[in-house]
Amino acid sequence: MANKFKGDVSFESGEKTYTMRFSANALCEIEEALGMGINTVSNLLADKETMRLKMVRVVFWAGLRDHHPETTLHQAGEIITDLSLGEAMLLVSKAFQLAFQDNSQAHPQKPGQKSPATKSAAGTGLQS
User: Fold this and answer.
1) How do the domains of the chain map onto residue ranges?
2) Between 126 and 85, the higher pLDDT residue
Protein backbone atom coordinates (compact mmCIF):
# COMPACT_ATOMS: atom_id res chain seq x y z
CA MET A 1 0.00 0.00 0.00
CA ALA A 2 1.27 3.45 -0.91
CA ASN A 3 2.24 5.80 1.89
CA LYS A 4 2.11 9.35 0.53
CA PHE A 5 3.99 10.69 3.57
CA LYS A 6 6.98 8.55 2.55
CA GLY A 7 6.56 9.51 -1.10
CA ASP A 8 4.99 6.25 -2.26
CA VAL A 9 3.02 6.21 -5.50
CA SER A 10 1.28 2.97 -6.49
CA PHE A 11 0.20 2.02 -10.00
CA GLU A 12 -0.72 -1.03 -12.02
CA SER A 13 1.02 -2.38 -15.08
CA GLY A 14 -0.17 -5.60 -16.60
CA GLU A 15 -1.49 -7.67 -13.73
CA LYS A 16 0.97 -6.36 -11.14
CA THR A 17 0.81 -3.45 -8.71
CA TYR A 18 4.01 -1.45 -8.31
CA THR A 19 5.03 1.18 -5.78
CA MET A 20 7.44 3.96 -6.70
CA ARG A 21 9.39 5.96 -4.13
CA PHE A 22 12.30 8.36 -4.44
CA SER A 23 14.07 7.65 -1.17
CA ALA A 24 17.62 8.80 -0.46
CA ASN A 25 18.84 5.45 -1.81
CA ALA A 26 16.81 5.81 -5.00
CA LEU A 27 18.12 9.34 -5.56
CA CYS A 28 21.69 8.07 -5.10
CA GLU A 29 21.01 5.30 -7.64
CA ILE A 30 19.92 7.96 -10.14
CA GLU A 31 22.99 10.12 -9.53
CA GLU A 32 25.33 7.15 -9.85
CA ALA A 33 23.70 5.72 -12.97
CA LEU A 34 23.58 9.06 -14.79
CA GLY A 35 26.74 10.68 -13.43
CA MET A 36 25.02 13.92 -12.45
CA GLY A 37 23.30 15.47 -9.46
CA ILE A 38 19.60 15.00 -8.82
CA ASN A 39 18.78 18.69 -9.39
CA THR A 40 20.41 18.53 -12.82
CA VAL A 41 18.48 15.35 -13.64
CA SER A 42 15.21 16.95 -12.51
CA ASN A 43 15.82 20.06 -14.60
CA LEU A 44 16.70 18.00 -17.67
CA LEU A 45 13.58 15.86 -17.28
CA ALA A 46 11.35 18.92 -16.93
CA ASP A 47 12.44 20.31 -20.31
CA LYS A 48 11.20 18.47 -23.42
CA GLU A 49 14.27 19.66 -25.31
CA THR A 50 16.75 18.12 -22.85
CA MET A 51 14.78 15.07 -21.67
CA ARG A 52 16.28 11.76 -22.80
CA LEU A 53 14.48 8.40 -22.72
CA LYS A 54 17.52 6.75 -21.16
CA MET A 55 17.22 9.22 -18.30
CA VAL A 56 13.48 8.57 -17.90
CA ARG A 57 14.11 4.82 -17.77
CA VAL A 58 16.87 5.16 -15.14
CA VAL A 59 14.75 7.45 -12.97
CA PHE A 60 11.71 5.18 -13.28
CA TRP A 61 13.84 2.11 -12.45
CA ALA A 62 15.44 3.77 -9.42
CA GLY A 63 12.01 4.77 -8.13
CA LEU A 64 10.98 1.11 -8.14
CA ARG A 65 14.09 -0.18 -6.33
CA ASP A 66 12.85 0.25 -2.72
CA HIS A 67 9.77 -1.91 -3.22
CA HIS A 68 10.83 -3.99 -6.24
CA PRO A 69 14.62 -4.51 -6.01
CA GLU A 70 14.49 -7.34 -8.55
CA THR A 71 13.38 -4.96 -11.33
CA THR A 72 16.01 -4.51 -14.05
CA LEU A 73 16.49 -1.48 -16.29
CA HIS A 74 15.09 -3.49 -19.19
CA GLN A 75 11.98 -4.41 -17.17
CA ALA A 76 11.54 -0.77 -16.18
CA GLY A 77 11.53 0.10 -19.87
CA GLU A 78 8.90 -2.56 -20.53
CA ILE A 79 6.71 -1.14 -17.75
CA ILE A 80 7.08 2.36 -19.24
CA THR A 81 6.07 0.99 -22.64
CA ASP A 82 3.06 -0.73 -21.09
CA LEU A 83 1.96 2.45 -19.31
CA SER A 84 2.92 4.99 -22.02
CA LEU A 85 5.72 7.50 -21.71
CA GLY A 86 3.30 10.26 -20.68
CA GLU A 87 1.79 8.24 -17.84
CA ALA A 88 5.24 7.11 -16.68
CA MET A 89 6.40 10.74 -16.55
CA LEU A 90 3.32 11.72 -14.53
CA LEU A 91 4.11 8.97 -12.00
CA VAL A 92 7.74 10.09 -11.76
CA SER A 93 6.67 13.71 -11.33
CA LYS A 94 4.16 12.84 -8.61
CA ALA A 95 6.66 10.66 -6.72
CA PHE A 96 9.35 13.37 -7.00
CA GLN A 97 6.95 15.97 -5.60
CA LEU A 98 6.14 13.69 -2.67
CA ALA A 99 9.83 12.97 -2.06
CA PHE A 100 10.62 16.67 -1.72
CA GLN A 101 7.47 17.82 0.07
CA ASP A 102 7.41 19.36 3.52
CA ASN A 103 6.05 16.64 5.82
CA SER A 104 5.94 18.83 8.93
CA GLN A 105 2.13 19.01 8.70
CA ALA A 106 1.88 15.22 8.53
CA HIS A 107 3.74 14.69 11.80
CA PRO A 108 2.50 17.06 14.53
CA GLN A 109 5.14 18.47 16.83
CA LYS A 110 5.29 17.55 20.48
CA PRO A 111 5.31 20.51 22.89
CA GLY A 112 8.82 21.96 23.13
CA GLN A 113 10.05 20.01 20.06
CA LYS A 114 12.00 21.94 17.44
CA SER A 115 10.70 21.94 13.87
CA PRO A 116 12.60 19.76 11.42
CA ALA A 117 14.46 21.52 8.63
CA THR A 118 12.02 22.64 5.96
CA LYS A 119 12.14 20.64 2.76
CA SER A 120 10.86 21.99 -0.52
CA ALA A 121 10.52 20.95 -4.11
CA ALA A 122 12.72 23.86 -5.10
CA GLY A 123 15.41 22.74 -7.46
CA THR A 124 13.65 19.56 -8.49
CA GLY A 125 12.69 21.07 -11.82
CA LEU A 126 9.35 19.31 -11.72
CA GLN A 127 6.16 21.31 -11.67
CA SER A 128 3.28 20.67 -9.27
Assistant:
1) 24-101
2) 85
